[in-house]
Design brief:
Elements (H helix, E strand, L loop, with lengths): L4 H6 L1 H10 L6 H5 L6 H13 L3 E6 L2 E6 L5 H29 L1
Antiparallel strand pairs: 1-2
Length: 103
């Protein structure tokens, strides 16, 4: 089942996993050591992240290492960026109001 990238990041545990593997690839056991849950639950989160292509699994010997597909995060950035322009305009307007009030 192909899932949407936003479904993947909707869960706080999956966001935490993304943060963990952002700097280095990790095995499921190493990832699970950072959570108060079962390894099976972490594996389920990893499967969803992999289905969304946010995470890549790579076999190295007997271990599987999961790493972040940084390029896939651009989809999130593109979506958020359309709202960034609105925020920046509003902050600019707020700066103008504050400058006027200071005078």
């Amino acid at each position: 089942m192909r899932r949407d990238i936003f479904q993947a990041i909707a869960d706080p545990s999956r966001r935490a996993i993304i943060t963990l593997i952002a700097l280095q690839a990790m095995t499921p056991n190493a990832i699970a050591d950072n959570f108060n849950t079962t390894r099976q639950a972490v594996s389920k989160h990893l499967r969803i992240l992999t289905e969304c292509e946010l995470v890549r699994a790579q076999q190295q010997g007997r271990e599987i290492y999961y790493s972040l597909e940084v390029e896939k995060l651009k989809e999130i950035d593109l979506w958020v960026n359309q709202f960034r322009k609105i925020w920046e305009t509003r902050f600019s307007q707020l700066d103008d109001v504050l400058s006027t009030l200071k005078k």
